[in-house]
Design a protein that fits this description.
FAD-dep_Monooxygenase_BioMet, D-Amino Acid Oxidase, Chain A, domain 2, monooxygenase activity, alpha/beta, 6-stranded mixed β-sheet, 7-stranded mixed β-sheet, about 375 residues, 19 strands
Length: about 375
């Protein structure tokens, strides 16, 4: 009889985990609290390790076809003066044989959803808690739903994001996410003529980045130091007031934005690491396990690389623990170097660009 797995969360990480487990012969159900998987988010960068994981899932070439290759970029001042240039994409291709690509989150989510077995995706299905079970015995893990129902499984994958209810039930004393000291805006917009990738740095933690995408679009993100919970009636107007006088083509990109075109969120992180990414028959994935600020992350790379080869049986025939999943920083081999110390609440957490090398999590080290 096929082993069973419950995946909590139908974001990119949860969908990829469900697809990988199903391809490995598991009987999978994926649950998410939302009634409809509507397009959410803007763009996402996929590095070579993420593309290889998507190759294993069978959609690597489809993602490449919908993507724009990452190109030369650099850092500028608000007046347009270049502070530095780089060719990250060229360096990645030369070293790893694959580029970094940029794709719309909604397109990647749609491709992953199509690979799930029919009837395995359950929307409007809120998981309130997870019971870990006993990997050394016969006690299964259990997902507890908002309506009081429970589902038993050989494995539960928790991928329900930074505010994971399941994580809270597994590690009730963990403090949870904390504000990183700055807020961010994200958007997709029509591309100006001859646009190039840039990130522009100003005062007060203000940054504005332009990332070319397919379909004559650009993905942009902006940041600023601000008190937690600050919101604006018109986020597009707020962006124009902050960045509308910066160098071209930033004003052109902002000019036609409507309030609904802009996503605005405070940046949060799990500053206190979890004692483990597993408990019993449960594994945590993505932001539910190790939410970090964007500067310390690797686009969508780590979560998809981690779902590439799901939990193979050990020689004894048991399925637990995954040989690469234990304590953060050891079995997971997260290759972080020179991490900055925590900063006071309200301060801008912008680590130097050299603070992380790769940030790749892989079963092979």
């Amino acid at each position: 009889m096929a082993r069973s797995a419950v995946v909590v969360g139908a974001g990119i990480g949860g969908l990829a985990a469900g697809v990988a487990l199903a391809r490995a012969g598991w009987r999978v159900s994926v649950h998410d609290r939302v009634p409809v998987l509507e397009p959410v988010g803007a763009g996402i960068s996929l590095w070579p390790n993420a593309l290889r994981a998507l190759d294993v899932l069978g959609i690597g070439d489809a993602v490449r076809a919908r993507s724009v290759l990452g190109a030369g970029s650099g850092i500028r001042r608000p007046d347009g003066r270049w502070l530095g240039r780089s060719d990250v994409a060229g360096a990645l291709t030369a070293r790893f044989g694959d580029p970094m690509v940029i794709v719309a989150r909604s397109e990647l989510t749609g491709l992953l959803q199509e690979l799930l077995p029919p009837g395995s995706l359950h929307l409007g299905s809120r998981v309130e808690a997870v019971l870990p079970g006993d990997p050394a015995g016969s006690e299964p893990a259990r997902a507890v739903f908002a309506d009081g129902g429970q589902v038993e499984a050989d494995l539960v994958v928790v991928a329900d994001g930074i505010r994971s209810r399941s994580r809270s039930s597994l590690f009730p004393t963990h403090p949870g996410p904390q504000y990183a000291g700055y807020t961010t805006w994200r958007l997709l917009a029509p591309a100006p003529v001859e646009v190039h990738g840039t990130e522009t740095w100003g005062l007060g933690g203000q940054r504005f980045a332009i990332v070319p995408m397919s379909g004559q679009r650009v993905y942009c993100y902006a940041t600023a130091t601000a008190p937690a919970g600050t919101v604006h009636e018109d986020e597009a107007a707020e962006l124009r007031s902050r960045f509308g006088a910066w160098h071209d083509p930033i004003p052109q990109i902002l000019r036609g934005l409507r309030p609904g075109d802009v996503l605005h969120h405070d940046v949060e992180e799990l500053r206190a690491p979890l004692p483990s990414f597993t408990r019993g028959r449960v594994a945590l994935l993505g932001d539910a396990a190790h939410a970090m600020t964007p500067e310390l992350g690797q686009g969508g790379g780590a979560r998809r690389w981690r779902t590439r080869s799901p939990w193979p049986p050990s020689p004894s025939g048991t399925i637990w623990p995954p040989p690469w999943s234990g304590t953060p920083g050891s079995g997971c081999r997260e290759r972080l170097v020179s991490l900055p110390a925590p900063v006071p609440s309200g301060a801008s957490r912008r680590p130097p660009v050299w603070s992380v090398r790769g940030c790749v999590t892989s079963p092979g080290g």
